[in-house]
Structure formats: C-alpha cells, structure tokens
Amino acid sequence: MRPVFVQFRCTPGKTYEVAEAIYDREIVSELYSTSGEYDLMAKIYVPDDQDVGKFLSESLFDIPDIRRTLTTMTFKAF
Length: 78
Prior knowledge:
This protein is of the alpha+beta class.
C-alpha cells in the first residue's frame, strides 16, 4: 500500500456534504478540513497493484460538489 494525499476544493457551502460522502466510501484513513485554496485533505492508502489515478477516479472523484482536486504522491517515509 502506498499513501497519497488528496486535497479537495468543494462547491461553497457543500464541504460537510462532500466530507460525509468521502467517509461513506470507506477508503480514506484520515480526513481533515483545511484552510487555504482547498477545503479538505485526505490520506488514502492505494493498493500497490492499483493505478493511482484510476483508483482515485473510480473511488472518489465522482462525488457531487467536488470542484477540483490536487493529488500528492509519496515516496519514502523518514
């Protein structure tokens, strides 16, 4: 499993609904509200045998009121 971080920008006023929908998918290990350009940040463990983009697209990115995402790949823990 490899961890990736995904930030979500939501339609104004819909952040809590998006957060609930993300949790309902049961694939995030952590989910935070954030300040700045994005509203939420999730830590997700992607199975090693899965393509990250396809996994995230099929698992999360169809949730209504997600306006934009930013995915950060991880490589090594120190």
